[in-house]
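Please produce the structure of this protein holding DQA.
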Amino acid sequence: MSSRNRVDIVHGVNLDMLGRRPAEIYGSLTFDQLEQQIAGYAHELDLEPRFFQTNHEGMLVEHLHRVEGLADAIVINPGAWTHYAWAIRDALEIAALPAIEVHLSDVDAREEFRRVSVIRDICVATVKGHGVEGYRTALTRIKEELDL
Ligand code: DQA
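Below is the modeled complex.
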């Protein structure tokens, strides 16, 4: 197995509440089930996933500060922070790894405030509106990006 296959799967605020959020928007998986599915996709693709979720913005910032040497790429769904958290954008830039933004829902087809993403332009790609399947797309894209 390649040594450049470590992918950090980062979830932000309220994603741990999946299962209690509107199923018609986010699907019916619990957060644990979501992470298990993503782990399955990663292993199928010979990628090594590492998972992190927090509801505290500073903890996400510090996680990104420490990612150097521990991961080769990032898949990130920051939740509502996507739309306004400039500190997370700066921390993602500092992490300096190829990153893909993922949203379970189609953020561009919902409320106006969800159309803004402060990280989109520093990510390799954005995958939105495909539920958990979107993570498979993101991981496939990451694999290409890492030349694996
Ligand atoms: C989300 C979309 C965000 O607008 C929302 O605040 C979330 C989840 C998604 O995965 O669709 O918490 O990132």
